[in-house]
Amino acid sequence: MNSFWKGKKVLVTGGAGFLGSHVVKSLVARGVTDIIVPRSATCDLRLRENCHRVVQGIDIVIHLAAKVGGIGFNREHGGEMVFDNLMMGIQLMEEARLSGVKKFVIAGTACVYPHELPVPFREEDLWNGRPTEENEPYGQAKRLLLVQSQAYRKQYDFNAIYLIPSNLYGPGDNFDPASSHVVPALIKKFLDASRWREVTVWGKGEPTRDFLYVEDAAEGILLAAETYDGGEPVNLGSGIEVPIKTLVFLIAKTVGFKGEVVWDRTKPDGTPRRCLDISRATAFGFHPKTSLIGGLRKTIQWYLLQKE
Questions:
Q1: 241-264: pLDDT as tens digits
Q2: Is the model's pLDDT at 1 over the cut of 70?
Q3: Given 23, 80, 172, 197, which is the most exposed site by the fewest CB atoms within 10 A?
Q4: Which residues face 212 on adjacent strands?
Q5: Which helix (H) or strand (E) holds 144?
Q6: Are the C-beta atoms of residues 22 and 218 closer than 8 Å to each other?
Q7: Within a domain: 190
Q8: What is the largest CA-CA distance in the chain?
């Protein structure tokens, strides 16, 4: 066991979700045995009394619980994105501070970055504009958790660190068309279509994204928990800029789709370009290991197994 975790009791909010389940798996692989994973059905973290209850006796909090979704979901549920994410994060951090939690790890989102920014995105440029309109409620809610963490560090000497993962994908992702992100949405579209049928994709395919395999993200989060104690945010990404059009045809080829791809230009594209500068993370040993094609193959295989 890494000495950092020895004797620690760890709370992982969202630990039963997509990213959280991989973080819990990585904790177990490190020898951590005292892991608490609250479930939303019995522990609604929007309620302060539940935040108070779950942090009692906890040494490390890894806060991953969030209300998330793709562009369409964000456009239709902006109020929920603000309220749910703020209530969970703000109250949990305050209760963690009051209960004496030794370290509070926050997973933010690349949606905190401004709509248009030179790539790669550097953490110090985070405040140089507003987030993309479609994702702004979610992005601004997550930004405020960074403000809170830095204010708590200054006033209370509270060790809260803030991480900014890029677009995550991998086994266990959300494949519901109503709320999924781009990778699972495309995989489902192409696999559900017949080999020669046309598939319609949102936008023009011109935006770019930084795709990070979920197991690499989990490793980055735990490395940060073990070694990073700074107040400045830290990007976790692949550091590789991938056009959506490239992603579309890569998935189509991988699943054997031979039909026509139709671009629905009436739908929004979101942020024009996104790629993260990961130099702060590499300084504490973070190095993504999974290539995009390798990660897509694993994700597709996992999805096919779920359909059997």
A1: 999 999 999 999 999 999 999 999
A2: no
A3: 197
A4: 168
A5: helix 136-156
A6: yes
A7: no
A8: 61
For residue 62, give its domain range: 7-172+211-239+275-290
Amino acid at 210: D
**Residue 173 CB neighbour total at 10 angstroms:** 22
Q: Which residues are catalytic?
A: 138
What is the tally of structural domains in the chain? 1
Q: Which residue has the tokens 């266990």?
A: 172
In a domain, 205, yes or no: no
Q: How far is CA 249 from CA 167, 181, 220, 257, in A?
A: 18, 17, 29, 9
| Global confidence as pTM | 0.94
Here the tokens at position 112 are: 């905190």
pLDDT tens per residue across span 180-206: 889 999 999 999 887 778 899 989 999
CA torsion, ordered 282, 35, 96, 147, to nearest 10 deg? 30
Mean pLDDT of the chain: 94
CB distance 216 to 299 below 8 Å = no
Count how many residues are written for the chain: 308
